[in-house]
Amino acid sequence: MDIEYFLELFFSGLTRGSIYALIALGYTMVYGIIQLINFAHGEIYMIGAFVALIVAGVCTIYGLSGFAILILAAAIAIMYAAAYGYTLEKIAYRPLRGSPRLSPLISAIGMSIFLQNYVLLAQTPDYLPFPRLIPDFSFMDPVAHIIGSAELVILVTTLVTMVLLTLLIKKTRVGKAMRATQQDLSMARLVGVNVDRVISLTFVIGSVLAAIGGVLVASYIGQVNFYIGFLAGVKAFTAAVLGGIGSIPGAVLGGLIIGWSESFAAGYFSSDYEDILTFVLLVVILIVRPAGILGKVRKQKV
Amino acid sequence: MLKVQNIQTYYGNIQALKDVTIEVAEGEIVALIGANGAGKTTTLMSICGITPSRSGEVLLDGDPIHDLAPENIVKKGIVQVPEGRRIFPDMTVLENLEMGAFLRTNKRQIQQDLNYVMTLFPILEKRQSQLGGTLSGGEQQMLAISRALMARPRVLLLDEPSLGLAPLIIKQIFEIIRQINKENNTTIFLVEQNANQALKLADRGYVMENGRITLVDSAANLLSNADVRKAYLGI
Ligand SMILES: Nc1ncnc2c1ncn2[C@@H]1O[C@H](COP(=O)(O)OP(=O)(O)OP(=O)(O)O)[C@@H](O)[C@H]1O
Ligand SMILES: [Mg+2]
Question: What is the ipTM of this complex?
């Protein structure tokens, strides 16, 4: 076995996986707090990528450098996605709080379809090329055949994002409020947590992570269209379920497992198998461990 | 101090509280007793704004609080130790206590109160970095009471603090409740099925049946009331 080829697949899997993980975090955090699978989450990611594309287009006209454009595009994409996530929760889920669990789920599917078609109509059904915003670093030259500059930027960005998220959740006051709400929503209210605000914040954080993922993927793959949110969403959702929905480390682990299995399947067998493998893995794990790898079997409340 | 006036609370179409009126004076210990499903927990949850009543009023020092969100009711000093303790299972004992002080900002006072609850229940200091979910039932009850104290309550609502605990622990918990009432002049409203213990501790008591208050009297009178003895004291 060729070790360099193995490493190349390893890093490309790690790169993809870390992006799945970023998106999976949004599913898992929302599920952890209100037990809702936010099917429109993939669309937030897609909108993030689209906003970045538009900003990048405008900036290129003004002749900014690639890295400056990337930062600016990402910043604006994050703001847009955050606003979409916040609004989505407010209009599509909050009014259904307290109704049967199926209602918000259907509302989520509806919002997903709506957002896809809205972008389709407002933009275009075609694939649009996304500019290469991440330059090739010369210091990466010696290892460029194993890990590219774009992959490095993605890995560092996701790592920093996850460390910041962990600190936010573990150390800050809002982070504690989020954990309390996740563990016992009514009790959180009884100690004075404004859970509506916590839920809004969770959507905003999830959307920010998805937008970061969207911008990174778009500049890595090089194209976007209105439908990219669907497949990425399904994969990231699978990652969240695989790792144990509701579990934050589980989402990261699930994302990495899927990234690696896709990359190795494509590299050693054929890229035809990469999508299938994801779902085979999901089925196997769910049979062996229905709560996911790191998931907890939720005790029924009495 | 706390006045519940003619509240009606519903779960969907089912009426759980029918015209409930309760009054608790400052510094008093008042007990609410009743059988399973009588509506005791619902009464506390209505006071705290978790299941708001459809009509009627809840007043604190004469000010209506029944339209406030739960966090604002906590801010006013009404704090509940809920049925089943509801410790945050994946937070440490210390974090659970900090959650109790969620709405407070004065770090020095919070530290003082941490020290205070740890002298009330020294076991909590030993267990402070252990996860809440791993504590024993008695320890969880001590933590639940301490968490509520961390909010510096003016009125402390307790829902069946003796539930599922060994007699010795129950005695200790009730002793601490009395101590909290004496030392800080904290007003106590105590829900119990353990009527005997509750009425021995309380100044006055209410009896609830099927969502209605059926009896109000001094605790001593209730303890000697023939109906109460038969229904709730098993004598
Ligand atoms: N979430 C709910 N949905 C529907 N009905 C409820 C709900 N919670 C309580 N009830 C009903 O309201 C009534 C009062 O319940 P509540 O929990 O207040 O009784 P309780 O006096 O606290 O009983 P226990 O001593 O068993 O704790 C019961 O008939 C119960 O079935
Ligand atoms: Mg009850």
Answer: 0.94
Residue B141 within a domain:
no
Q: Which residues of B35-52 are buried (b: 16+ CB within 10 A; e: fewer)?
A: eeebbbbbbbbbbbbbbb
Question: For A98, phi and psi rounded to 5 degrees?
Answer: 90, -10
What's the domain count of chain B?
A: 1
User: What DSSP character marks residue B121?
Assistant: S
Query: Residues of B with CB below 8 A from A192's CB?
Result: 70-71, 74-75, 102-103, 151
Structure tokens at A235: 């994969």
**Facing residue for B91 by CB, picked from A179, A186, A189:** A179
- Residue B48, sorted as left (phi over 0), alpha (psi -120 to 50) or beta, turns out to be alpha
Residue A173 token pair: 């006051």
Cβ atoms of residues A251 and A21 within 8 Å: yes
The kind and range of the H/E element at A115 are helix A102-122
Q: Is B153 touching ligand 1 by the criterion CB < 6 Å?
A: no
**CA of B224 to nearest chain A CA: how many angstroms apart?**
34
Q: How far apart are CA B162 and CA B201, in angstroms?
A: 13
Quote the Cα angle for B61-B62-B65, to 5°: 90
Within a domain: A296 = no
Cβ–Cβ under 8 Å, residues A20 and A235: yes
Name the nearest CA neighbour of A45 among A212, A286, A258: A212
Q: How many domains does chain A have?
A: 1
Residue B33 to residue B201: CA distance in whole angstroms: 13
C-alpha–C-alpha distance, residues A277 and A132, integer Å: 29
Q: Indicate if ligand 1 lies below 6 Å from the C-beta of B38.
A: yes
Tell me whether residue B177 is in a domain. Answer: yes
Stated pTM of the model: 0.91
B178 part of contact set with chain A, CB < 8 Å: no
Tens-digit pLDDT profile for residues A203-262: 999 999 999 999 998 888 888 888 888 888 989 999 999 999 888 999 999 999 999 999
Alpha carbons A215 and A133: distance in angstroms, whole number: 10
- Six-digit token string for A2: 């060729």
Q: Which domain does A207 fall in, by range?
A: 3-288
For A40-85, how does the pLDDT look when each residue is reduced to its tens digit (9 = 90+)? 999 999 999 999 999 988 888 888 887 888 899 999 999 999 999 9
Residue in A177, A183, A192 closest to B74 by CB? A192
Q: Which residues pair with B5 in a beta bridge?
A: B57
Residues of chain A with C-beta less than 8 angstroms from the C-beta of B90: 179, 183
| CATH number, domain containing residue B43 | 3.40.50.300
Q: Is residue B136 part of a domain?
A: no
Which residues have beta carbons under 5 A from ligand 2 (an ion)? B 41, 83
Contacts B98 to A, Cβ<8 Å = 176
Nearest Cα of chain B lies from the Cα of A294 at a distance, in angstroms, of 14
CB contact under 8 A, A191 and B86: no
Alpha carbons A208 and A41: distance in angstroms, whole number: 11
